[in-house]
């Protein structure tokens, strides 16, 4: 699947749509989710045309791959989540429930979260 240059997060990266920014560096932008599922729900996205973890893991420069992980830790500390904990989720593709086709990590926290998945 080719990268869709008109997906919502690509448009946010280009400044065509607004976001409530919490962090930005050379490689990464992070902003509040428009429909929060926890008291704090932040999305962290790489600056680059990566639809999902598959393309990011195979095609992104190592410095950008590292920056995404580093940003998650930095943001969590800045937002006061590090001590009590939080959850990081990346949905990938159809089975993973991914809706926006630009790689994004969800940071969820601010309260004790429910179980990740319902037991089978
Ligand atoms: P996914 O299901 O793809 O892992 O997550 C997509 C996330 O993007 C959802 O949590 C949804 O609420 C969020 N979202 C969708 N459109 C927008 C938007 O225009 N702005 C922001 N900040 N979040 C969005």
Describe this structure as you would to a colleague.
- With 120 residues, the protein is of the alpha+beta class.
- The protein has a single domain, classed as HIT-like (HIT family, subunit A, 2-Layer Sandwich), CATH 3.30.428.10.
- The protein is built from four helices and five strands, in the order H-E-E-E-H-H-E-H-E.
- Strands 1-2-3-5-4 form a five-stranded antiparallel beta sheet, covered by helices on one side.
- Bound molecules: guanosine-5'-monophosphate.
- Guanosine-5'-monophosphate binds at residues 8, 19, 31, 33-35, 43, 91, 97-100.
Protein traits:
single chain, 120 residues, alpha+beta, HIT family, subunit A, five-stranded antiparallel beta sheet, 4 helices, 5 strands, globular, binds guanosine-5'-monophosphate
Count the domains.
Answer: 1
CATH architecture: 2-Layer Sandwich
Can you write the helix and strand succession as a string? HEEEHHEHE
Q: Spans of 5+ residues with little confidence (pLDDT < 50)?
A: none
Strand content: 15-25%
Major sheet, described briefly?
5 strands, antiparallel
- For the largest beta sheet, what order do the strands appear in spatially? 1-2-3-5-4
Ligands in the model, by name, code or SMILES, are:
guanosine-5'-monophosphate
CATH topology: HIT family, subunit A
């Amino acid at each position: 699947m080719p990268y869709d240059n008109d997906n919502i997060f690509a448009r946010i990266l280009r400044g065509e749509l607004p976001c409530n920014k919490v962090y930005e560096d050379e490689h990464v932008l992070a902003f509040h989710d428009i429909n929060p599922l926890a008291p704090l729900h932040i999305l962290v996205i790489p600056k680059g045309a990566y639809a999902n973890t598959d393309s990011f893991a195979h095609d992104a420069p190592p410095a950008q791959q590292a920056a995404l992980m580093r940003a998650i830790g930095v943001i969590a500390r800045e937002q006061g989540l590090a001590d009590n904990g939080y959850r990081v989720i990346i949905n990938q593709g159809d089975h993973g429930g991914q809706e926006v086709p630009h790689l994004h990590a969800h940071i969820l926290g601010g309260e004790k979260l429910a179980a990740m998945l319902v037991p089978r």
